[in-house]
């Protein structure tokens, strides 16, 4: 298409009377305000960890799930509980242990006697909540893990011959301890791929630790009011899906994903230490996260920078290192940082 | 205005701005290249040492401008995608903060088809257009320092270094011909040829002989040539001459001396033959003797007497006179026929001059090729010599061709005169007397011409030798250089000062080598000149002992020419002019009774060897007159030089040798060539 023809087509496109710039702008603005309120509410109880909070909220708005990795005592459970309170969503917690059975998670049919009549009745497990905290998920057996992960992916639970839909928004936050690997069952790659983000909870800074002590060793914790309801969250999810992504930026994301694959990457380091690159789910996660970041920032379209900032949490658990990479102590975060640093925005 | 169109318009303006900047960038790169090229050109010009012509400067400036223009054009024609413009606008919108890529995304949305556009996209485009409208192209694409600035600075520094650095010009390292032509006077002085006075004694003798002959023969032309040679010799001795100037003068002298030489060639021989034929008859013997001796007065007197006697003689006696005249005529005809058979070119050797000219030309050619020149004047000399050679050959050729007629007329006239005289003597006494009286006037005139020719030939030979010496003053290089330089040093009386200590000095059998090695050898040879003469071996072998030293040059200098004692450091002024050894010989024990009287003599204070030779010849101490010995030997040597394959360059040495050992009489002998 010639330039003039393209310009004319573009002119027709942009003069479409169906455009409602003001409404969209207002929606984006509202999105930003609501998200800000949630952040503020969480910050009242949770000290620091803003990156974790943003990641959790991003995954929630993208319809994904979070895998939190961190040593005990860093506020993972508190974060989930606070998030549940701030969002006015149902919350349940499952402590994964080796003897935990799938039915303990998803529920089971039990004989119920009612009016002299005995019948099986499904007793919902803790997974039937909007926010599910799967604490130390790697301590459960793979069978139990699979039950949870099926529910995460399908947004439904099948018991016997009956399938029970999970009420949206269904948001799982799984945690795992990276240091106590004895007697654990590391999640297989296929199941890791189902987590939207994998967030690492770091030890708080000194000031943050002071604040934590001030809040938790005092008279009482501050009350949190619900900032967002269930319906609003679903609307926000819908809005995120409508955010367009320019082809150059999407192309950048695609090239980022390609760069994680040893067979396609131009980076020697990737070829040397990476066994498997990211799946397409990783690209989906990156784009969705970039959209949410853009809208959360009040912008209508994501930028290259949004994509870059989404890469590490979205792909760190989707890129698998080979033995050489593991032996050398190379982390996926470093590999991804190298890719981001060396991949040009446009070709 | 639709947002998309507005956005595209904004981007178009930004693209124009970027194109202008790219053109400037290209021009800057071109300027850097032009600057570098100019620096190279300036350095090259400075190295060459010649200023650049205005046309060259115009070309240089034009090329620089063209390079700049081409750079600007190349920059302006570069493809600038709108995406790049959008990035510039986004950069201006976002500043140093987080990049939002609104305009880039909006531009991407404008390229989508109509059905693919969503409300969100339109909103994004409207948002981008609204924001970008506040951004001026200058703000989106601000002027920045060209990336080629370091290259430009480097080129400028290069130009400065090339223009201002003290780079030595090539001209200052290797003087050009023009520079050589403009040699400073001081340098010209150093290039002058300056010969010591004694080294030119031979030429002075020839000049004196030529002047005497010119006076006797009343030959003004010969006198003029002799005086010109005398002036040249004086200049060479006193103030020196530039080699080219000296060669010019000598070439001109040679040309003047050779004039009419071909015209008179063969005349002396014909007169000699006629005289010998007349000597066979008693009546004409006196006339024949006078004629053969080229004595004009005696010839005139004898022929006049013969005419008187013929008038009163009997028929039989007149017939014998006529027969004698016929034989003389036959002799002349024989000479004439032989010369005709030889042709014009072959006639030259008999005259001596043409052969010498040819030989000289050959030697000049060889010498010119061999001569590497000394100092800056070597090349001009070589070219001058080549030119002289060509001119000399040309002149000789033209002379030999043009002079064929006059030469034949002289001989034919002589032949005719003799025939007519013979016929007249057979017819009647009065006619015989009248004809012989005419002969008494004509033949002396021809004798004078023959003597003039001989004098000119000797003068020409002297000029030729001098010219060859000057050419060799340039320092002969190569295989012949050593021997010739030694010889020339000996000729100048410098052999003792620069004599090299060569172990084979005494083994070289050549006389010239012996002379070069040791002038004392001349004395030994001269002492032997009692009819047998000395050979080169003797001369050569005497060199070590007479020279007194094979050691260092300083030792040689101290002892040379003076024997072992050598207290007097006077080295003499040329070959044969060194002082002799102890005139009393080595002192030994007295074996006789009586009082011993010691002669108070001083070593080295005796006569020179040449003086000893001369005095011995004059006083008759030698069995044979030295002049006769010299003349005989020189004639044999000249025949050998002409007949054998002696290289022309070596002929000079032999001739120079004989020139140096010439008899120092009051009257120079006739050359062998002239007497033949």
Head-to-tail CA distance between termini of chain A: 21 Å
The overall strand count of chain A is 11
Kindly report the spatial arrangement of strands forming the biggest sheet of chain A. Answer: 2-5-8-1-9
Kindly state the number of beta strands of chain B.
0
Identify the CATH class of the largest domain in chain A: Alpha Beta
Reading the helices and strands of chain A in chain order gives HHHEHEHEEEHEEEHEHHHHEHHEHH
Unreliable runs of chain B: 170-189, 344-405, 475-480, 496-572, 666-676
CATH topology of the largest domain in chain A: Rossmann fold
Shape of chain B: elongated
**Going by CATH, what is the homologous superfamily of the largest domain in chain A?**
P-loop containing nucleotide triphosphate hydrolases
Radius of gyration of chain B: 47 Å
Number of discrete helical segments of chain A: 15
- The oligomerization state is heterodimer
Describe what you observe in this structure:
The complex is a heterodimer of chains A (347) and B (676). Chain A has 347 residues and is of the alpha/beta class. Chain A has two domains: 21-99 and 126-242, Rossmann fold, CATH 3.40.50; 244-347, Orthogonal Bundle (Helicase, Ruva Protein, domain 3). Chain A has helices spanning 3-14, 21-45, 50-62, 76-87, 102-106, 142-154, 189-192, 206-216, 230-242, 247-259, 268-273, 280-296, 304-315, 323-327, 332-342, and strands spanning 66-69, 91-95, 107-113, 118-124, 131-135, 156-159, 162-165, 171-176, 197-200, 274-276, 320-321. In chain A, the strands form four sheets. In chain A, strands 2-5-8-1-9 form a five-stranded parallel β-sheet. In chain A, strand 3 (107-113) and strand 4 (118-124) form a beta hairpin. Chain A is globular. Chain A starts with a helix and ends in a 5-residue tail after the last helix. Chain B has 676 residues and is mainly α. Chain B folds into three domains: 3-169, no CATH class; 258-473, no CATH class; 481-582 and 603-675, no CATH class. Chain B contains 32 helices and no strands. In chain B, helix 4 (102-110) crosses helix 5, helix 11 runs antiparallel to helix 12 and helix 19 (353-370) runs antiparallel to helix 20. The longest helix of chain B is centred in the N-terminal third of the chain and has 46 residues, at 3-48. Chain B starts with a helix and ends with a helix. The interface between A and B is medium-sized, with 34 and 33 residues.
